[in-house]
């Protein structure tokens, strides 16, 4: 079935219902944490909106301008070292919580992005460039350098293992 | 992407609950000074914790001051960003259960290894 013909359906309605029910039960039980939890939820949503807007914009750009062949060249089977650089770089530069990036990653995977690059992207997110000075202040320059380099190496290794894992599971089917 | 709004709202709601009900004292109480136990505990605590990465640095700094080992704190700040129990349902729904299990398992092992190696290298360096 083509992408355009895929039927629209809301995703996570049951989960949302469960969370609303949880809030209701806690509120009925008189738990004092419900008010602050709602406030925090509102605060997170406010913080999340610009990140989601960026993700929606990027997804629209990819769907409009990048054809599957071009994407496969950059992030697919034939991407090579360029794919690793893009995934690791995008991971380091991406902001916000991980779940804000799931929809975009889903789109990219549908267009052929390798699972190894997805794993590398998610792990490289542990490096936050704007927060590096703060990490230095709290834990020292040597700690920051060692952790950053090891995290990048671990992200790449994870991607390699994930790619082999995916290949093996595909060949076993 | 619009179709995922209910899921994103649900996860954000859960994050709000976690941030409201799980306190810094609860985190500090899981560490006992043993490097192996603390590295594992730091990873698990980081998996459960949610919020911006900057909060993990502040919490990690406080834990260090309280005498928690660098193994644990490193695992904690790494797991905070790369692993997340709260977002697992969404990751599984969007990226598939098999991928989610594999990715989180790899990230879990990596976090343990990177934490131990970071401290070892620093001990050799200093």
TrEMBL record, chain A:
Q: From the record, give the transmembrane residue ranges.
A: 12-30, 42-62, 83-102, 135-157
Major localization class: membrane
A GO CC annotation recorded here is: plasma membrane
- The answer to whether the entry has keyword Cell membrane is yes
* Domain of life assignment: Bacteria
Q: How the protein sits in the membrane? A: Multi-pass membrane protein
Keyword set includes Transmembrane helix: yes
Keywords from UniProt, A to Z, are:
Cell membrane, Membrane, Transmembrane, Transmembrane helix
Compartment annotation: Cell membrane
Which Pfam families does the entry mention? ArsP_1 (PF03773)
Q: Which family does it belong to?
A: Belongs to the UPF0718 family.
This chain belongs to the protein called Permease
Q: Which organism is it from?
A: Nitratifractor salsuginis (strain DSM 16511 / JCM 12458 / E9I37-1)
